[in-house]
Inverse folding.
């Protein structure tokens, strides 16, 4: 059941990403281009997602435990450190340059565009290389 609901959740978010056009790099780049032809529509998508997430999170945490585990596994770290900030900066620059982040890129795979396939291939290669390199900041 746990795998079924994980798959269902992935399909639901992929559908939402596709319907909102967050899989279109030009739409994303237009959202990030504040000095040019700015498209604020993705801000509304993000705001809507934030509202749903916040309400759902508060509702779920009223339970004593999740449905498929004995306890909640919530992050305990609450500090901003160099690896977090560096990772966020790299992610943001990559998102701005490519118009993709991992979730929308994977959701866009069925379109089989060369840009999407290239991005996902390089993303996976980056994961593999990063796993082999010890990072000490």
């Amino acid at each position: 059941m746990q795998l079924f609901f994980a798959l269902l959740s992935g399909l639901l978010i992929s559908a939402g990403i596709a319907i909102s056009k967050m899989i279109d790099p030009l739409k994303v780049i237009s959202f990030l281009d504040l000095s040019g032809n700015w498209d604020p529509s993705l801000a509304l998508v993000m705001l809507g997602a934030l509202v749903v997430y916040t309400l759902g999170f508060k509702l779920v945490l009223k339970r004593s435990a999740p449905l498929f585990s004995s306890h909640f596994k919530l992050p305990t770290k609450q500090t901003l450190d160099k690896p977090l900030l560096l990772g966020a900066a790299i992610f943001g620059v990559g998102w701005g340059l490519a118009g993709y982040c991992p979730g929308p890129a994977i959701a866009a795979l069925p379109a089989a565009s060369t840009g999407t396939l290239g991005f996902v291939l390089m993303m996976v290669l980056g994961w593999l290389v990063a796993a082999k390199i010890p990072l000490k900041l």
In short: The first helix runs from residue 2 to 19. The chain has six helices and no strands. The two ends are 40 Å apart (CA to CA).
